[in-house]
What we know:
Layout: E1 8-14, H1 18-28, H2 42-48, E2 59-67, H3 68-74, E3 80-84, H4 107-129, H5 134-137, E4 146-154, H6 155-165, H7 172-188, H8 190-193
The structure holds flavin-adenine dinucleotide.
Amino acid sequence: MSDRYGVEVKLxxxxxxxxxxxxxxxxxxxNTQEKTGTVPDRIQSWxxxxxxxxxxxxxxxxxxxxxxxxxxxxxxxxxxxxxxRSQRYVRESEQSYVSPPELEVSHVASxxxxxxxxxxxxxYRELLKHGMKPEVARYVLPNSCYTDIICTWNFRExxxxxxxxxxxxxxxxxxxxxxxxxxxxxxxxxxxxxxF
Length: 196
Ligand SMILES: Cc1cc2nc3c(=O)[nH]c(=O)nc-3n(C[C@H](O)[C@H](O)[C@H](O)COP(=O)(O)OP(=O)(O)OC[C@H]3O[C@@H](n4cnc5c(N)ncnc54)[C@H](O)[C@@H]3O)c2cc1C
């Protein structure tokens, strides 16, 4: 699994026996619940015809670490619950930021980037020293700041996020996150995520 941005995706919790719950919810529609577990690709067949609402009954929570640029895009997905480390109440005492691997092809670009980071954190520390609250000082911090966020999505929203954010058009860092989400979900709920 590629991890060029240093992103971390950890599964914190998942609906127990999720696939059984989903299949029995789907089978309720046809009153065939007694057949739950007898047809291996039952859920995939429903998904293929757009009958998807039953996968909303299961959800998963993840702890995700990456840049604020990436989490800004992640939280655009609205069918979700999020808790993110605050830059208002928590001091960014560590100079901790993502360095996009694309910079590595140019020594000059890498230096420009490092200088910008040094300068931003220098200004941040000075503002704190002059009595500014973290919520004010943080205005000088860059999008590259590492942040931690806990995200809870139902399986339907997870499929949507994986589909949108693993394409070549997605921001490379969020693609790393989505690929890790995909791999975790394919392992934990193969009947729901088999087509990814
Ligand atoms: C490659 C890429 C480039 C992007 N570029 C930009 C950009 O330049 N600027 C920008 O602002 N955003 C951009 N976005 C963000 C994008 O517009 C969406 O806000 C984001 O991807 C969240 O997806 P969503 O709205 O489909 O889904 P979610 O919020 O995850 O919702 C899931 C689905 O629920 C339904 N839904 C949710 N809310 C509503 C609603 N209010 N009304 C009707 N249906 C709803 C829709 O079917 C939606 O697809 C980009 C996204 C991608 C993947």
